[in-house]
Amino acid sequence: MRMTPKNSEEAIRMGLEDIGGKYGIRFSRIENGEAEASAPLQPKDRNFYSVPYGAVLFNLADNTAGMAYLSTGGNGVTVSGNVNYLRGADPKADEIHSRAKVIKRGRKLCFISAEVEDNLGNLLSTYSFVFSDI
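The chain above was modelled as a monomer; its predicted structure follows.
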């Protein structure tokens, strides 16, 4: 049976273990409503155009936004996520990077913006997320 985190610190610890193991996401910064992360691009992450699937980019952005949210003391889940795909990653790119920042933290809801770029510096997608305390 899965444990439910009791607070945001425990949720961050549990998330780092779970997310890193499942998706290879590495967080370089989680503090004060901001987070940064990266993930390797593997052959399974690419479509027949050699471009990463949109879901791979979204997953990185959502998890990065979640850590930014947790760093504000929140303890909850994503309730909404919107994406703008701007371009495909360069086929030579072997990693993607994400940055997320809390825009507004209310009593129950938290609004976050995020972006994903490849390791060659190409901005691939932008996001807006809403998280809710549970």
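The radius of gyration is 14 Å.
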